Amino acid sequence: MNPLMPHRFHLLEQVPGLVHGVYTRHGGVSLPPYASLNVAWNNGDDPAAVRENLSRVRQSLGTRFLASSLQVHGDEIHILNGSPPEEEDPTGFLMRAPTGDGLVTTRRDVGLMIKIADCQAVLLVDPEHRVIANIHCGWRGSVRNIAGKAVALLCERFGTRPEALLAAVSPSLGPCCAEFRNFRDELPQAFWPYQARPTYFDFWEITRSQLVEAGLRGDHIEIAGRCTVCHQQDFFSYRGEKTTGRMAAVIGWTSSPNH
């Protein structure tokens, strides 16, 4: 069994009691083309393999639960602060949140999981109010400014000060490979200056700009800067492979008060 070696962020590692990781495609049990740490149920993989992969992610992270949603490239964000929902998995550690593309919690025992294969996971932490969010942000999410909407929700519901927020952007589609031949129809004109070269767009910088516009400090934003298309040996890439797995990007408060 390959060890799980998630990408971690220096900014987030400084927060006491916080656990996080963007897991690679390695360390699971799924067979090709989902090899090997696929965490998605709806792409054709063996459900038993997915369950084992999720169990390994949870154990690696050290939370009691993993919570995720059916992601639909929208801008719906759900707050998970109650008891585990009725549809909790019989294994006792999987929580199915309502359909949407963002999760927020103050609970100490839940890892918020976003599934990615080129899209960004945007991890947000408010160290002052001990609230976290995990956002699924593909290009459609960027057009809807889901990252900015998540910041606004934290401010409205939890009293978050944007300048205190920390943000991390997962390995994802890089400016080297983000080609949009029909960008005039797909992307707003405000995105057009973010072309790294004709028809190729820098969505890492788009997300950074949206977070800064929402009030975050520039030095409170850490971007992994690793392109999933370029590094398919380590990451799942829908653009590169079409039929493939999904990686887990997870953030949570440890269930141990002494951690």
What is the straight-line distance between the termini? 27 Å
Tell how many strands the DSSP assignment holds.
13
Helix count from the secondary structure assignment = 7
* CATH topology-level name: CNF1/YfiH-like putative cysteine hydrolases
Listing every helix as H and every strand as E from the N terminus to the C terminus, the arrangement reads HEHEEEEEEEHHEHEEHEHE
- Taken from the alpha-carbon principal axes, the silhouette is globular
Helix content: 10-25%
Going by helix content, strand content and strand pairing, the class is alpha/beta
- Please compute the radius of gyration using only Cα atoms: 17 Å
Strand order of the largest sheet: 3-5-8-7-9-12
CATH homologous superfamily identity = CNF1/YfiH-like putative cysteine hydrolases
